């Protein structure tokens, strides 16, 4: 009890001392700056549109020569700016000495400063050797301008994050250039400056009202104009109306570069850009300052007390999660405080104390750790009993001291607890039909300190039944490598061998199936060859029948045929041509299935394909009272990559089917469209009876007429099957969509011969 009584006060004392030391020494400043830099992108806002930067860039140097320029150039710039109405102008140039060789240029610049008011010129306080020197503009210039300091401090890591709103020597303090600019329109702001106060030091550089810059979103930037573009008149004077105009050096090598946590393109900032960032914060009223030290300390101390409370309320299992949640709350609170009140709470001390409290409380759990070791031992026994292989541990001389549940199942009974049960009394071992004593193998494994593994062993259990198993014997080592026994693993592979036998049977069955498939393919090939030969054999006499019928049909003045005979000849010719078409389809199908069909792929105009097919089908459509319309919305010069003969065959098949299976006085619509995959789709829509979904699945199979064979329309049911295979041979596709009672749409897609240009988006 006494131990628990003093434990919490001691922990509180240690954490309080750590809080004081870390706060006073600021040892974790680098962590605070890192957290600050991480939070900046979440708080940054777009650059203010009220700020315009006129840059002395590389283009300007090329136009006006090397720096520094004659002062009449700057006077010309101010004269141009004076014609507009900027809120304020800042020249980030030091004019501390008169131009002895061009006094008229000094006079012109003085007049321009008076003309372009309000103008802010920089003051720089810096070391000249061991002495601090304050560099001011020429008195004639200073009479017509406001002065602001251009000093920038770097943090200890070399990054610029803050500025002093006032800097100077002795009692005379100059406002920062961003503040001097802002005060031209808001002089009341000088009466109540924000920031961290500092004490003045005699004879040294004094600064006061330190604020941290929020910076602006680096994905945006201020309006930037080239110095030479402004002087050349390319920029209208009205571009500066109501703006804060900052003029400074941005060309590489001319100005000091200031690394910043946020900057456009991730590059260091120049002096004029840093002034713009400070002015941006003033315009948005988002300048930040650290939380006063006393509040910082008490907040950290309160978090230390909370960490002690957490360590007593949560178990070691959940304590890290609780600390992690509180750490996230500290970071979130720091970010929220900065966003809402513009005060920066440095969280590193609080986070360090919070995480330091965890190991201080951990030693209390040492006793529980011992208990967990016993629980782990129990868990190990449970795990061993859950293993499917039999596991047996023995002494070095082969006496069994443990069996898991799987080993007991193999043995068939639980061994007695006496130490007299020897492993060789339980198992008789044969390896490659040779008997072995397991106890000898145990001694060999211990002597050589290596595991022994044997596959497909025969084990006789208690002289009653045999099993086939994989056997592994490995030594068990105690402290300092002393052997304490052996562990035997028995993997019964009887069921596995049975499964292997079944797999072999399955393999044999699959071989038989493959043989049947090969025979089926051979039969299919023989069928294709038979169809091809028969088609050739049938076409020869059929062509003779058609030829003689055509001769009979010809008008012979000397021996004219009776009208009834002419009708008979017409029927013979019609039947012969129909039979010839059927034989040609069978021949095409045989060629496709045997892979002997040759495709002559070339470029063909889409308009020509449609014109050829509609010219052939239009008379037939008119004879049946059908209205055929063509809607080709594509360019007439569109070229398809197809076999022209086969493409006409596909489209004619669709059109003839639309004529044959259409309703009386129906309609046939042919449309084209370009798909995203650079394919042209040609669709043929009829107003026939339509097809059910189940019928659509069978439509492109050979010899499928879907019940039409009982009607008056002739056919074999292989036309669409041939169409599908021909389209695929030309790297195309076919398809159908249909609604019973409304009609069907058959479509084919052909690849483009030349990819069409993509129209630009507006």
From TrEMBL:
It comes from the Bacteria. Residues 533-754 form the Histidine kinase domain. Keywords: Kinase, Membrane, Phosphoprotein, Transferase, Transmembrane, Transmembrane helix, Two-component regulatory system. It catalyses: ATP + protein L-histidine = ADP + protein N-phospho-L-histidine. Pfam families: CHASE2, HATPase_c, HisKA. PANTHER family: SENSOR HISTIDINE KINASE RCSC (PTHR43711:SF26), TWO-COMPONENT HISTIDINE KINASE (PTHR43711). This is histidine kinase. The lineage of its organism: Bacteria, Pseudomonadati, Pseudomonadota, Gammaproteobacteria, Methylococcales.
